[in-house]
Amino acid sequence: MKIKKVTAKKREPKILNISGKNIPLDGALKFAGIVSTGGQAKIIIQAGEVKVNGEICDKRTKKLANGDSFEFENILYEVCAHEGELI
Are the CB atoms for 45 and 25 separated by under 8 Å? Predict the structure, then answer.
């Protein structure tokens, strides 16, 4: 019996382009269109449904900076911060 080695595909993140140095986690969820209100963001964050950089985060004001990632419902998002205005 042969055993076939299975390798997991690397997930490509959805890029979240923001202006400025950082964005709070609850704001990132709204900006990404995952939730429509801060109250909804608070509920899913405090329920432990969001991972930041691979670890569950229950702090809605957690600041995300350039290169940070967050995950909700198996969808990965990466923050890309730009100084000044986005074109």
Answer: yes
Domain count, the chain: 1
Output the pTM of the full model. Answer: 0.81
Spell 57-76 as b/e; 16+ CB within 10 A means b: beebebebeeebbbbbeeee
Is 55 part of any domain? Answer: yes
- Mention every residue, 6+ apart, whose C-beta is less than 8 A from residue 3: none
Residue 28 is assigned to a structural domain of this protein: yes
Distance CA(79)–CA(58), nearest Å, equals 18
The pLDDT assigned to 82 comes to: 84
Residue numbers of the chain with a pLDDT score lower than 50:
none
We report the CATH number of the domain holding residue 18 as: 3.10.290.10
